[in-house]
Amino acid sequence: MGSSSSNMDHIPDAQHLMQETGFSAAHLVRLYERFDFLDKDDRGELRLDDFEAVSELAMNPIGDRIIRAFFSPGRETVDFPSFVRILAHFRPTDTNRTRNGRNGAQPEPANSRTNKLKFAFQLYDQDRDGKISREELLQVLRAMLEMQVTEEQLQSIAERAIQEADLDLDDTISFDEFKKSLEKVDIEHKMSIRFLE
Amino acid sequence: MTATRRFVLLLCVALVASRCSASEDQHQDPTPSNDHVGTSSSDSGNGTSSGHDSSSGHDSTSSGHDSTSSGHDSSSGHDSSSGHDSSSGHGGGPITTLPIVSWKWHHVSTPYLVALWILVSWICKLIIEANHHVTNIIPESALLICFGFILGGIIWGADKVQTFTLTPTVFFFYLLPQVILDAGYSMPNKLFFSNMGAILVYAVIGTCWNAASLGLSLWGCHMGGAMGDLDIGLLQYLLFGSLIAAVDPVAVIAVFEQVHVNEVLFIMVFGESLLNDGVTVVLFNVFDAFVSLGGAKINAVEIIKGIISFFVVAFGGSLVGFVFGLLISLLTRCTKNIQIIEPGFVFVLGYLAYLTAEMLSLSAILSIVFCGMCCQKYINANMDENSVNTVRYAMKVFANGSETIIFVFLGISAIDKTLWVWNTGFILLTLLFVIVYRFIGVFFLTWILNKFRLVPLEVIDQVIMSYGGLRGAVAYGLAMMLDENKIKEKNLMVCTTLIVVYFTVIIQGITMKPLVTWLKVRRAAVSELTLIEKVQNKVFDHMLVAIEDISGQIGHNYMRDKWNYFEEKWMSKVLMKPSARKNRDRLFKVFHQLNLKDAMSYVAEGERRGSLEFIRNDHAYIDFKKKFDDDYYEEVMPDIMADMSDDHGEMSSGRDPVPSVSLEMHEQNMKAVRDSEDVNTHHLLQQHLYRGRKQHRHRYSRSHFDVNKDEGEVQEVFQRTMRSRLESFKSAKMGVAPPKSLSKHPKKEQQQKMSNGKSLDKTRSYYSGDEDFEFSEGDSASGFNPSYNSMPMRVTYRAGAGIENLGFMPDLDSGPSVQLPRWLEDSSSVVPSQRAQVQLPWTPSSLRRLAPLRTSTRSTDSFMMADAPPNAQQIDLPPPPSPPASPPPPPPPHHHHM
Question: Where in the cell is it found (chain A) (predicted)?
């Protein structure tokens, strides 16, 4: 703890971030190191090409979408707090199950089920209109299934997927419908990674 | 319950009868038992009893001759009986006349008994499964053991000695492998490997802990004088501990399959039970050797050797399995020409993996588990779909069958007076320690594991895991393998093992379900396969990898991604057929399955309602085009397609009709993005081709026959309905249809005439009278009925279009009475002639056309041009430009993105 708190000094607003995101000091230090590493020009901000420098991401079919998710609308850069806030979505859900209790008093933590899903939702919803249109779904599908499936098949898959989820029959998937369609999926398992300390 | 009681009663009667017949000379009485066997197949109630009758009759007769009590299907038993055969069966004395029928029991006794016992065990299962209210409370495995008690009691009553017991040889060589192979083959690999760490911890450390603590505690109690005078040393206690420490896969599968706990919990217990075999075998062998060596000779070197042997046995076994798994995958790459026995390779090589590991004294169970796990992906991709189904079912038949036999014989083995040595202290303390140390071990290990786990195991899960630590036949088999010369109290150990097995399987098995309910353990979601979930799961996978990349963590997802990459690049390339590699996308497979399911349920529903429902349902046809012969969809579909795209033009503005069948909805919308009919036709063709792929794959005699038969059943209905639909569409458009479709119509008409000549026109003339009226009704019903808007699109509703249109039912009723004769007339007179003209010359070419199209749907034109007869090409010719009245919906810009 001693060494980490000495490093903590570099991190702006560390205490507040810890409280907000639920990361421990050790996590934060480690993430800050990573942030620093990605930030090649030491500007204190990450730009698009900083992310694109991560070579593995180029191989990820939806890598660019995930990168874009780090940028809030209209912004060209990501500072450390927003970097951490995005990553906080992927913290394992707290096990003490107190989140139901504090739901009213405090805003839901980023790693709650709903917020995790919201993050996943906005990967599809590129125009941020709160709905996944067929076109948006198709783009994701196309990215993920490229080469193996023909365009026609993609279309029918997208069609069917929308049909499954689309409850109010507006031919798009709203967030509520999205959430409902993934009701049975173990989001806590599937959208959490273990952050090293 | 009454059935059970009746069964017992019949058994007793049968027993008496068999005693009588056994006392008679067997040469003179061949017919009764033959009759019994004969009746066993006819009536289940009587058949049961007579099956037992004959078997127990044979038991009693055979026990006199067959001195080997080691088991009915061991090889030694067979040898001895065949020896008998040669001496008594044929050479019983000089024959005076040619025997027409002779009684040669010993000639067949061994295989006969084996078959009978299998039959008896399975009939037990049949009786048990017939009583659902009983199996809801008591798990099947427990009931099977109870049946075993009864059967054992009967044999004991007849023979005064237990003729049939479960011998280690039979169990380990003939009963266990298929159960484990099935477990490995149907193992959810992803789930297993993502929990691999925890499973290994439980399997290795947990089992060692169980063995050591149990052995030491018993020894301590022995020293304390809790069990009186027993000749068991510390090492023997440890040996006993090691054999009873392992959670049994067979028992665990049997119980946990009935309580549907959540998948993580299941894989924990199940995985542990499979993997701890490596540990058990090593511990057992090591301590067995130590017991033989004697305490004095054991030194540090021996202990280190023991530890090393653990790694060798466990990893060696896994490696053998892995190698055999690869071998199976490679073999199934090139079994295209012997598809009939293709599934056999899986079983034979799986069994060989087991035996090879056993031969090398490695862990056989680990070997066969890994064999199954490795090959599952590749053989499922490599083999024909029928073969895959065969493997799947045969695997289940073997596994389930031998599981049944195992449990029945576990029960039978108990009824043996010579076995039972009662020592209250030893038995009760063992039972207590087994349970207590299981709990302690699980809780302690989970406590450690939870520090590292992403999603910690909850206390409730831990309770179930501890309580699910069932012991079973593996422990019993190992106990039977103990050497009586070295271990004086072998019988005590065996019967203690049996009691532990009975306690865990019966008592814990019965209470497991209430406990799971009471503790509100998260159950497995009975989830219907949905496409969106599948898509989302893929997105999750990619997302996690990306986030790990960005945040610089090298974690589980990173490793998995790397492994997937490696697997994709190398293993799939080597082990999978190139053709299989191309179309094995998971997402697409789900899509395909869903569509097939819909289609089947729709067809079933349609058949149930009678063919006329199809007419009424405006949206039903697309599913069925694959059932059509090529000429039919060629001639019918373009027309409908045109109509559909028109329909959709209206639709997209108002978004009114939500079709009741999901299948065709995407068709419509896809059609909407098509700009010309030409493309429409191609598109439809492609749709047809790739969805019909399942059927086109079957090119070999057996399967081909099946498919055709299936198809033929529905075909007639479809042909009729489709034809009349076509007619009604046409006439509707001629008369009452909106100008849009009218404008397109002449062109289609033209094509029809070009392609099909007179015959179609003839059929049309039959219908045009009332059909158009009907169609317009149906159209308005499905298109504008507001009830459609509120209809959810679940599978169960899809077929319900007929119900939804209740308002139009009267009309429907009037329809058939007029039309039916015409159909009959039509199908008998017109269709054959038409088919004879058009279809026959087509068949080979159409078949040829299908295969390549599956893989490259883009090149439809060239294929069509090359293969189709001239009249088909005419359809492919560019159609006349669309009239301005119906501007085609503009294609979205992304459309040809690929």
Answer: Cell membrane; Cytoplasm; Nucleus
